[in-house]
Design a protein that fits this description.
Helices cover 15% and strands 33% of the residues. It is α+β, with helices and mostly antiparallel strands.
């Protein structure tokens, strides 16, 4: 068409790149100069229907989602138009083979339908587009799968941090290893769609990805509907589309045959539910068959709340029950804390979670909560490290992590990644009111060592008054939670 004919498309590539499948690089010789960009032409523009459908289900207009960092706001019409084009992909044709060099290696693909929350992933893209491609091409960022939605998990959300310009880059899943190493292999699982996701004025710190399995399925369906002698079909036929993947693009099932659920990793962690108090909602952590911990601002002064448990291994079936708010700290308390008792036993609770007794700054942690997508999806997982354990009078009173925490994650669980021990309860992220900016990767949690002794006393006596100790105002702890300098003890 005239539109594609007028496009001047250049493809930059780096043959002396690091190989993500072997994690080796040839550093014993000086790297060759970057090759000149190659021209490319558009074979087709493809709409991924499964991705499009899931987008309209998850990202509601009322939540004012944006997938860029544009200060200009043209209202709801602009948001609708933007969402309409997020599911469109360009299929390009170019020749990356150089004289005297072998062709680029085939790419292995993984099925999005077999992904699990918490799976380790690597994002590969070129931040800032064509700006200094020799510096930014094939930049890597690690993270985990935060959430999945749509038919065949067409929508993938990851906490791997990406920058503008990485759109169109690949998301790779590592087989059998937490990180890339010399013995691991990486498989393409998705294409990066949006590196910056905003919900209203809140940057959520997650990257939006479309499953490559869904893209290839739509590409195959379009090719099959073309005339047999169509030049475009001839070009696509060279890809040898069979079984939903071109030749050389083998689809890897990342889940074991006996595990079709994305919640297997969640079972290592405490059970987290969504708590709805009417005007507000957030997360809660089940610490006993009938007991859930959350934040004061989540229950919002109500005597009863609704709790929702997602059964992801049963097709996202939701179990709804009612809980009575047994205790909520006073507004003057340093701790934003509440206790809810279920009228029925919580589902899926195998055992009472182990509450950690010590904290090691720098250790890997995961936050489990209903941030970002909230009621429209199951709990999200975001990874990071315990950046700091703040103590007062020789006892931990606040935890800080680098996990991406959004509105709705309050009351969620901070867990030790490898053991699943409960480290604390998420209280809040950070917001700069003057700049109207939210920082999801700086957040604050109540250490488990603060409430665990009270839980033990309550389990023995059944007296809810044991939690009243959290209402005591300690000036030092209060200053910590108000982000003020503690008074000197000199």
């Amino acid at each position: 068409s005239r539109f594609t004919a007028d496009l001047d498309i250049r493809v930059y590539h780096s043959p002396a790149r690091r190989d993500v499948n072997t994690h080796k690089t040839t550093s014993h010789v000086p790297p060759p100069p970057p090759p000149p960009p190659r021209t490319a032409k558009v074979l087709m523009l493809l709409n991924c229907l499964e991705f499009n459908k899931a987008l309209h289900t998850l990202f509601q207009e009322s939540d004012q989602w944006k997938f860029h960092n544009d200060d200009d706001d043209d209202g709801v019409e602009k948001l609708i138009q933007e969402a309409r084009f997020l599911s469109w992909f360009a299929v390009l044709q170019t020749d990356l083979q150089e004289d005297g060099r072998r062709s680029p290696p085939n790419v292995l693909c993984a099925k999005g339908s077999s992904l699990r929350k918490g799976s380790s992933v690597v994002a590969c893209g070129s931040p800032f587009g064509s700006l200094c491609p020799d510096l930014f091409t094939n930049t890597l960022s690690t993270g985990i799968v935060s959430n999945l939605s749509g038919e065949g998990n067409a929508v993938i959300l990851t906490d791997a941090r990406c920058l503008p310009g990485t759109e169109g880059g690949g998301l790779f899943v590592t087989e059998g290893h937490d990180h890339l190493s010399s013995s691991s292999s990486a498989h393409l699982v998705g294409v990066i769609v949006a590196s910056l996701c905003w919900k209203g004025v809140e940057w959520i710190g997650l990257t939006l990805v479309c499953s490559v399995q869904a893209i290839l399925r739509n590409l195959r369906d379009v090719a099959e509907r073309m005339e047999v002698d169509s030049p475009l079909r001839v070009e696509l036929s060279r890809l040898r589309l069979h079984g939903g993947a071109p030749e050389g693009l083998q689809l890897l099932n990342t889940a074991s045959p006996s595990s079709s659920s994305s919640s297997s990793l969640l079972r290592r962690y405490p059970t987290v539910c969504l708590i709805d108090s009417g005007q507000f909602w957030g997360s809660g952590v089940v610490v006993a068959p009938h007991l859930v911990l959350t934040c004061r601002h989540v229950v919002n002064g109500k005597k009863t709340v609704t709790l929702r448990f997602h059964h992801e291994e049963e097709g996202d079936r939701i179990h709804v029950c009612v809980g009575d708010v047994l205790f909520s700290t006073q507004p003057s308390s340093s701790y934003d804390f509440a206790v809810v008792r279920l009228r029925d036993s919580a589902p899926e609770v195998v055992e009472v979670p182990v509450v950690a007794e010590s904290f090691q700054p720098g250790e890997e942690v995961v936050v489990v909560g209903y941030g970002a997508l909230g009621k429209r999806c199951g709990p999200s997982l975001t990874g990071g490290v315990l950046s700091k354990a703040v103590s007062w009078d020789r006892r931990p009173v606040m935890l800080q992590t680098t996990c991406a925490v959004q509105a709705g994650a309050s009351g969620g669980a901070v867990v030790r990644k490898r053991s699943g021990e409960l480290l604390g309860i998420v209280s809040s992220n950070t917001r700069d009111c003057a700049a109207n900016v939210t920082y999801p990767h700086l957040n604050f949690s109540i250490p488990g060592s603060v409430f665990q002794p009270l839980l033990q006393r309550f389990s023995q006596s059944g007296d809810v008054e044991v939690f009243r100790g959290l209402d005591a105002v300690d000036p030092g702890v209060q200053r910590v939670w108000r982000l003020q300098n503690p008074p000197s003890k000199l």
